[in-house]
């Protein structure tokens, strides 16, 4: 196996000059640089990237914290982030917190121990004051999740407005008893969605009903359980706002397959995220589409710019547009008179 000494000998230059080229340092003429590169190619010499990173105190690695990768939204987000990061020569590691405060804090330790250069938080379960001290160790950026009182860059859509529009749509379809279905701990993001839901109800002279709220649904299986809860305990519910297409799909499947309910006439259902499953369901699921790739690209770009220019860039907020996609799970044959 070729060594740096072999490269220096073949190029007819010193080991120090070869080291400068390998580490992309200045003060080497183009002619000498080309001689060294040619010698490396001839010998098949590959620089030790781990040693180079150690010397520069950089890992060229970004940690992305998220609740669970099995959620297609986060899977698509990670795929887009990895693609963008690789364009800058960075790699991404995925840290699933499963909405655990301890796991979230443990993963943030990666920044403190210099095992990653920066962190992207796609979810947040701890208080901001507990996360804030880690900024002394490196940059942190929010994507999807956001918190008004934080002092870092945030890339997200307006979840309050999205929930408001989805709920108004259900009300326009004649729904008067709408169940609010969410999952996991109440984060800043989920609070914003709940605000939008409540604001829409108030415009129709309705108020948020805690007895119609379900706060433990996260996947298809939970969606199936939600249907049976509505059927057995909340039979007057005629509309459902869910925070996930997975939950909406599970609910619709169970309603149509086990109880012969007609969706949306018996129950109108709205999902969230425009996952592929929302299109494949029968009926197709009305949902909110987020610009996942655009948000992922901007997040990676913002974080890497902070790594390249530490302390020089002020925090920014980037709010991306969403779209309410009306499909068959809410298109009722008989609409109420508006």
Question: Overview of this structure, please?
Answer:
The chain is an alpha/beta fold and 338 residues long. The protein folds into 3 domains: 4-55, Orthogonal Bundle (434 Repressor (Amino-terminal Domain)), CATH 1.10.260; 59-157 and 292-320, 3-Layer(aba) Sandwich (Rossmann fold); 159-290, Rossmann fold. It is built from 13 helices and 12 strands. Strand 6 (178-181), helix 9 (188-203) and strand 7 (213-214) form a beta-alpha-beta unit. Helix 1 (4-11) packs across helix 2, helix 5 (72-87) packs across helix 13 and helix 8 (159-172) packs parallel to helix 9. The radius of gyration is 26 Å and the shape is elongated.
Looking at how many chains there are and whether they match, the oligomeric state comes to single chain
User: What is the overall number of helices?
Assistant: 13
Strand order of the largest sheet: 2-1-3-4-5-11
Q: Structural class per helix/strand content?
A: alpha/beta
Low-pLDDT segments: none
The CA-CA distance between the termini, in Å, is: 79 Å
Q: Percent range for helical residues?
A: 40-55%
Biggest β-sheet: count, sense, barrel?
6 strands, parallel
H and E order:
HHHHEHEHEHEEHEHEHEHEHEHEE
Domain HTH lacI-type: 2-56
InterPro entries: HTH_LacI, Lambda_DNA-bd_dom_sf, Peripla_BP/Lac1_sug-bd_dom, Peripla_BP_I
GO molecular function: DNA-binding transcription factor activity; transcription cis-regulatory region binding
Pfam family, one: Peripla_BP_1
């Amino acid at each position: 196996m070729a060594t740096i000494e072999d490269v220096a000998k073949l190029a007819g230059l010193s080991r120090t000059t070869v080291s400068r080229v390998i580490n992309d340092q200045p003060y080497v003429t183009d002619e000498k640089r080309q001689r060294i590169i040619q010698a490396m190619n001839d010998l098949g010499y590959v620089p030790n990237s781990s040693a180079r990173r150690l010397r520069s105190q950089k890992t060229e690695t970004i940690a992305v914290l998220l609740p669970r990768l099995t959620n297609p939204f986060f899977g698509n987000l990670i795929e887009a982030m990895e693609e963008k990061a690789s364009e800058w020569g960075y790699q991404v590691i995925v840290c699933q917190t499963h909405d655990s405060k301890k796991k979230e804090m443990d993963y943030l330790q990666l920044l403190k121990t210099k095992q990653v250069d920066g962190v992207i938080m796609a979810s947040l379960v701890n208080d901001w004051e507990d996360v804030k001290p880690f900024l002394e160790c490196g940059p942190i950026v929010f994507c999807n999740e956001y918190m008004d009182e934080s002092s870092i860059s945030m890339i997200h859509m307006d979840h309050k407005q999205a929930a408001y529009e989805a709920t108004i749509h259900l009300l326009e379809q004649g729904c008067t008893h709408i169940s609010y279905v969410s999952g996991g701990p109440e984060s800043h993001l989920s609070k914003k969605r709940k605000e939008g839901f409540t604001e829409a109800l108030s415009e129709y002279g309705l108020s948020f009903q805690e007895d119609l709220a379900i706060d433990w649904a996260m996947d298809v299986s939970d969606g199936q359980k939600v249907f049976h809860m509505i059927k057995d305990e909340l039979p007057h519910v005629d509309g459902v706002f869910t925070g996930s297409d997975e939950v909406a799909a599970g609910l619709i499947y169970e309603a149509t397959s086990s109880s012969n309910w007609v969706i949306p006439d018996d129950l109108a259902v709205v999902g969230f995220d425009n996952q592929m499953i929302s299109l494949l369901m029968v009926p197709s699921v009305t949902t909110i589409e987020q610009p996942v790739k655009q948000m992922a690209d901007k997040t990676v770009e913002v974080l890497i710019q902070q790594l390249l220019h530490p302390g020089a860039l002020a925090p920014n907020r980037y709010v991306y547009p969403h779209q309410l996609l009306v499909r068959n799970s809410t298109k009722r044959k008989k609409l109420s008179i508006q």
